[in-house]
Amino acid sequence: MAGFVDAALAGLSEEVAGTEDAVWAEGFHYASCLDDPRPLPLLLEDGAIRVLRLGLLLGEGGERQGTLLLALPAEGRGARHAEAAGPTPEARDWSARLERALLAAPAEAEAVLARIRVTADAMLGLRPGMLLPVPADCVARVSLEVGGGGAFARGRLGRFRGARALRIEEGLAGEPPGPAIESRPLAPPLEGLGTGGRSADAGAGAARRAAAPAPGAAPSGRAFPTRQAG
C-alpha cells in the first residue's frame, strides 16, 4: 500500500509542477495507516482542506470498482509558483540593461521625397542631366521610414542654417507607403530652358559672345588709331 500511495502522490506532483496547484499537491508521502478513520478529526490540524476524489476500475475488465479520496491541507507544503512573488531584483536589473542596450542601438531612417514608376526601358536609358518629374506637393509630404515597417512620421522639406532639413509635422503608426506615380524621364534639350529650343548653356554662350568687344575696339567703345602696314 505504501508504494501505491507514494507513486500516486509522485504522479500528482509531476502533473501540477510549475502551476499554482503545486502549492497544495506537492511535498507529501506515505507515513502510516489507520485501521479506524474516526480519530482523524483529532489528528489533523485545523484549517481548510482540499479534497480530490477519483474513481477507480480494478482488474482487466474493471471487475472491481472503488473510490480514491485525497484530502490535503489547502496551504500545502509545496513551493509557491515563481510568478506569484514577481520578478527578482536580478531579473529586473537584466530587463533594464536590455532596454538601455536596445534604445542605444543605431536606427537608420530614410526620408522619402516621392515614389515614381518608370518602364524598364526608361530606367536603362537614364543618363546624367535627365529629369524625373515628381508630384508638385512632394516637398510638403516627405515621409520618414525605417526598414519595412512603413512611415512613422511625415514632414516638410526646407532649410536650416544653410543645410537641407526636414520639419516633422505629424506622427504615423507604421503607415504603408503610398502608390508610386507614373513618371517619364525628360532628356535635354528641355522645353522651357534656354531660347528658341536651345539649352540654357547654349543660350548663355551666345550671350557671352554677343557681349565680347569687336576686334579693334577699345573696352570703352572708342576706336584705336590704326595705320596700314607698309
Automatic annotation (TrEMBL):
One Pfam family linked to the record: FliMN_C
Flagellar motor switch protein FliN-like C-terminal domain location: 101-170
Protein name: FliM/FliN family flagellar motor switch protein
Lineage: superkingdom: Bacteria
Signal peptide: none
Keywords, comma-separated and alphabetical: Cell projection, Cilium, Flagellum
Region described as Disordered: 171-230
Organism, scientific name: Albidovulum sediminis
InterPro entries associated with the record: FliN-like_C, SpoA-like_sf
Composition skew (Low complexity), residue ranges: 198-223
